[in-house]
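[SOLVED] Need 3D model of a two-part complex

Original post:
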Amino acid sequence: MPVPTEKIGKTYPPVVYAVGREKVREYAAAVGETNPLYFDPQAARAAGYGDVLAPPMFAVVYCSSAFSGALFDPELEIDFPRLVHGAQEFRWDQAVVAGDEITTTITVRDISERAGLRFDTFESVSVNQRRETTCIGTWSTIVRGEE
Amino acid sequence: MPLSEGDQIELRVIPDRYVTVRYAGASGDFNPIHIDEEFALGVGLPGRILHGLWSMAQVARAATNAAGGDPTALRSLSVQFRGLGSLEHEIVISGQVKAVSDGVATAKLEAVQGDARLIRNGAAELRVG
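Solution:
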């Protein structure tokens, strides 16, 4: 399977995501969270946050549009129906709360081919409206070869 | 809550019949393999499967619970996705604190559902104290 290694290093335009209180609550409920910090603005303020706190894995939500933009980039020639998520890493820094605006930039870190499988690694860097880093993600995908 | 080397982490969760529908709406991942039984069967899957990132969120939850429930204690989490997660079967997330140094606990975690290892080689860093 030929892979477009010349695209390693490609960076995509930043994508801005506005964190809404109800979206945080919806996400927290969908993953089974019960911590009041994610649901109750008063509890969050009492703990020193400006509004409800986003669970760490909410990074998936605010990175989603930026990451999709890279995955569907025609220049990467990813065979989407054969794509599976191989591995994921997040490193968190500043907490994210409702009202924040998060800007995420995706970079292609690696593209390789081994034993008929294609491996892609993307990095996401997310910063808040104060330019503080909130999360750095490493997204590893695998494309199965033709049978 | 102080974490010590050797501490065990465990969380059990049963994904209900509609959890993938709620997660699709919450996350924006509407891949039909997660929400459409006929489509999933049509592409050779045993049925609708869980979103891998939902399962990872359960591992994150297990880790933050172990650290006393402070969500900002979780500094990093890395996982490998393996088996396919199914609905209405219990998932057991288990782990162990491997080391504590300089105020950071390092834990290994995995998620298992019956014979399927959904997540393996999970590694979390948790701020302690």
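Edit: Strands of chain A lie at 15-18, 83-92, 101-114, 117-127, 133-143.
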